[in-house]
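<goal> How does this chain fold?
<sample>
Here is the protein in question

***
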Amino acid sequence: MEDYPRTLDEFKARFRNKQACREYLEQLRWPDGLICPRCNGRKAWRTRRGLWVCCRCGYQASVTAGTMFQDAHEPLTTWFNAIWWVTSQKTGASALGLQKVLGLHSYRTAWTMLQKLRRAMVRPGRQRLSGRVEVDDTYIGGFEEEARGRKLGKKALVVIAAQEDGKGIGRIRMRRIKDASADSLHAFIVDSVEPGSVVHTDGWDGYGGLGCKGYTHEVTPLTDRGKSASTLLPRVHRVASLVKRWLSGTHQGAISREHLNHYLDEYTFRFNRRASHYRGKLFYRLVQQALTVGPVPYKLIVKHVRGRRPKHHNL
């Protein structure tokens, strides 16, 4: 049974201290009770520090061990407030906004928390898209005169898959890819779309051969119809327009290429849950998924970023 607060007042009343937050995590991580990973024992007692000690073998277990919350310097109450605020923002969350809301002294702390939360927005083993799916690629970044066709230049190339839902858009998937080759495009489609689905693309050579991978490939060559790509593949182009507007509006386009996929994951998380009646359900999902993501130290987050600082470079 899904258990989450429906309103801000419910949230504040329920998670007023770290003990309440810890018990909620235990409920989500061990719904059938703690089972000792060493001896499979089911009886344990709790220490004052919040650890569980197996009565049979003495093994100590922590609900945050091996999760996004492991070794976090901020208390669980701060994390829960951050998750509630992030999932309550329909247009996305910025580090500066989170810093102000939580009263954090450090911008770097807020930025790091958001980066960790974005990594938790992708559920391991999530269901792939199915049915009829539009797929196309687009560029994110400033206009460059020298970039023509599918030449990358200084832009970031992003491939988008949008599931058809009547005339509307169902679930989506997005990923930054290094180039528009068949290897890059096919890898994304195999990861994102269930075999047996209809994949609708333009006539770019990189999409050729999808039939050999178990898909029904529907091709619409743009040059043959005399229509724009946005008319022939309306769903992916609508998503592309929305995500570019979101990146420009919420984040002023100041995002490093190295972190772009995590921002795309955030947008996908929000878009696929846009019809939720309660924002608390998004809170529930993100906390739940945070328990499946391993710890990500700050040094690892900035390892491949130019400047190694939480100050993004424009794409």
About this structure: Residues 234-251 form the longest helix (18 residues). The radius of gyration is 22 Å.
